[in-house]
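Need C-alpha cells for this chain, all 388 residues.
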Amino acid sequence: MTRVIHTGDTHVGYRQYHSPERRQDFLDAFESVVDDSIDHDVDAVVHAGDLFHDRRPDLPDLLGVLSALRRLDAADIPFLAIVGNHEATRGSQWLDLFSDLGLATRLDSEPTLVGDTAFYGLDHVPQSRRDDLEYDFESPPADAEATALVGHGLFTPFAHADWDTEAMLDAASVDFDAVLLGDNHVPDRAEVDGTWVTYCGSTERASADERDPRGYNIVEFDAATVDIRRRSLDTRPFEFIDVELSEGEGVERVLDRVREYDLADAVAVVSITGDGDPVTPAAIEDAALDEGALLARVTDHRAVGGDAAEPVADVDFADPDAAVRERVGEMGLSSLGRRLDETVRDDAVADSNVRGRVASAVRDAFDEESEAAEQSDDRDQVSMEDFL
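Here are the C-alpha cells for all 388 residues:
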C-alpha cells in the first residue's frame, strides 16, 4: 500500500489584501501540511501545482519553502510536484532548482515509483496549446501495482472546466487509477470511466468566496484500489457576516451584526443585501477592527446592476501593478477573458504573435459560447536569476 498527502494551490507568497500577515498565513499553511506529513509518516507529499503564488516569489517565501522541504527530506519523505499556472516561468522552474538541490522531484511523462505506485505529472498547459498534447507517458515499472497522474487545470466534470478529462484519459498511453488535481480551490472528487479524479482544494483562502475549511487529501493506493479522504487545516479564521437590510435599516443594523461575532485575529467579510439605507463601508470596517479583526472587507451588493460596491481602493503604491492585478482577479470573467489572460501572460508566445493569438481566441469564443471563471495573479520581487 502507498499512502500520500495530495496537496496543491498553496500559493506561498500571496500578499492577500496587501497584508504581510496574510502572506505569512500562506507559508504557515504549507508548513502545516509538512508537519502533518511527518507526524503521520506518509510515503510522499504530492503537490498538484501553484506552490508559489507568483513566478517571481520574494526571498523570504523561497527560504521558507526550502526550510520546509529540508524537513521533509530529513524525514525521508519525497516531495513530488508539478508546475501550476501561477508559478510557470519562461525556462527553468523553481521546482527544477529544488530538484537540483535533492529536495523535490518534478513529475513528468516518466514514472516516479513510490512504494508500489507510479506517479506521473502534467504541468499546467494554456488552453490555446492543448490541441498539440499527445498524453504520451512511459509505461509503469513491472512492480507498480497502481498509477496516478498529477495535473493542474480546470478539468471536467467539475466547476468552470475547460479541460476534457474523459478525452485525456482515452488519449493517455497509461491507464491511470487516479488523477490528482490542482487549480480548482474547491475540494471534490468524481469517478470518470473507472478512474478516480479529485481536487485537494487550496490550503488557505485565496478569495472571500472560499468559505469552507481549507485542507488536503490523504490518498491510499492498495493495488488498483484508491481511497481518498479529506483532512482540514487549522488556518486563520474568516468570519462571514451576511446582513440583509429591511427598509429603514442601515449602518446601525450592520454594526450590531458585526458585534455578534468573535473577530479576534480574524478576517471579517461583511456582505450587505436588502432594501435598507445606504451604508458607508469605512464605518463598518472600523468597527470590525475595533472588535479585534486583522482585516475587514465590506461588500454592498445593492449597487446599480447588482455589482458589489467596494470601498475606496486600498492601493499599495509600493507595487501598484499588484493592486491592479488583484482587483482584476476579483472580477468574474468569461472563458474568453481567461484565455486572453493566458495568452497575454504566456511566456512561450512571442510578443509579435500575441495580437494574432488574441484575434483567434475572440473568433473561437463566438463559436464556442462557453463561460468559465478567472483566477487572480500578483507580482512580486525576486527572479530565479537573482536568486541564483
